[in-house]
Amino acid sequence: MQATQLTTARPVLKKLTCPNCGSPVDQFSPDAQTIVCKHCGGYIAVGVDQPALLSEGRKLPAPPVPIEVGQMAQLQNTAFIVLGRVVYEGWDPHDQSDRWQWNEWQLGGADGRLLWLAHDEDGFALYRKLKLRQAFDPLNDRTLPVGGESPVRVHERYPARILGAEGELTFRARRDDRLTMVEAAGDGKKYSIQVSDQELEVHEGIRLDAAQVASAFNRPDWIKTIERSARRTASFQWVGGLMVLFAMISLVAAITVNGSGDALMSQTVTLNSASPMTTIPIDFGQSGRPAIIRVRLAGNLPVNSGVEVGFSMISPNQMENYLFSMDFWHETGVDDEGPWTDIRSSASKMFVPQQQGLHTLEVELTGVTQGFNQPVTAQVTVMGNHIMPSWFIGYGVVFGVLGLAMLFIKF
Amino acid sequence: MGRAILILVVILVLSGLLAMTAFASYSGAGLVAAGAQPSARSGSSGGVIILGGGPGSGK
Fold first, then answer.
1. Do B53 and A313 touch (CB under 8 A)?
2. What average pLDDT does range A123-144 have in this prediction?
3. What pLDDT score does A7 carry?
4. CB pair distance less than 8 Å for A353 and B39
5. Do A359 and B34 touch (CB under 8 A)?
6. Is the pLDDT of residue B38 over 90?
């Protein structure tokens, strides 16, 4: 693809008058069947005795890329001119709120070829018309009989309509014309089948990247924009990749430190309403390191009962701090899904001893449900010098999600 | 050149944050502390209280 001039002064084939607004309309292409009036947007049928209004128009959304009607492009060693543009809207037949748009520019070649340059969320594709040699049922067939070595598989079918158009088109087009789109792919090519009440058209396309198209249209400013976007995308991908790498390191660290720590003591305690508190001596060899208190009840509580156990710590300087409480329960009931049972007979919580030396852990039965009057026996285990995995998990999740998002951002 | 500086800065920031994360994990940042300063509640709660009854109360 080589650079060529941006636009050309095209000779006017025929001067017409818009049957809708009376404005002058120039016809450039002898193949045109529809011309969209620049002034009122009306769709005018040409190629008949008198231009006839096919439908009224509406303001067309701006093209997503700087391609305009009348511009020249050098594609496949041939000079092409942009004859017209059609904006389509497709939608999910099962969810009509899911809608999307794409643009197609009709290109007229110096060698007489007519091509379509399509642009959607996947980028550009250049299509040429294809004749099928075998029958094809667009609504049911799973493969498209194009005669190649590899099968061309249909991967999408959806309804669509013409949202708007401009310039000249080599088919009869009206605003809101409905059609069924069938998309297929195979052998490195894309296939677009447009089915309307009157006809079935098959187009075979090849992908073009934006830089190729900008180069074909000889648009240095567009090429610079694309290059700038590519550099920005690459930078984001580098940063995203680094974030994912660090996130993985952090998550591996979280797995490694999970369950870390030294067992400092393990003791069975029995509490009841008459004697609700007991004390356990614990020697913390290091201060400022997380410690875990794990409690496991000896068996389940009676049905539909619960207890609350509180923990306080007396430090070597006799400073006493309430730490937390743990709830245990055994509940049953019936809901819409039938009977249910919910049991909690073990729990663990963490704290940080800020002093070194012999501490006293106070374990106290602080609450019971109505009618509960039996002793509660539990195994209390204290681990010291723990490394918390939760901060590593937080780091890993935050930068993992951020990094993956940046990896897939495109400018 | 610009991208190399960006990558270097990102590596430094991520490394710094990972180091802070490691320190927070090692020192138990965010956990309740014992022995740093007296807490509002100390000693026995004053006896066993009756918890709110009924299924689901403990959840």
1. no
2. 92
3. 52
4. no
5. yes
6. no
CA-nearest residue to A326 within chain B is B58
Other C-beta atoms closer than 10 Å to the C-beta of A157 total 16
Q: pLDDT tens digits for A45-64?
A: 997 778 889 988 888 888 99
CB pairs under 8 A between A and B: 162
Q: b/e per residue, A61-85, with b = 16+ CB within 10 A?
A: eeeebebebebbbbbeeebbbbbbb
pLDDT at site A8:
55
The verdict on a CB contact (< 8 Å) between A329 and B59 is: yes
Structural domains for chain A: 14-218 (no CATH), 262-388 (2.60.120.680)
The stretch A100-120 carries a mean pLDDT of 95
Q: How far apart are CA A161 and CA A151, in angstroms?
A: 28
Average pLDDT in the B33-41 region?
78
Q: Quote the minimal CA–CA distance from B1 to chain A in Å.
A: 12
Residue A5 has pLDDT above 50, yes or no: no
Q: Kindly report the nearest CA distance between residue B19 and chain A, in angstroms.
A: 10
User: Which residue from A102, A35, A34, A98 is spatially nearest to A63, judged by alpha carbons?
Assistant: A102
Tokens read off for A371: 């009618």
Give the per-residue pLDDT at B39: 67
Window 95-124 of A, Cβ < 8 Å to B: none
Chain B residue with Cα closest to A306: B58
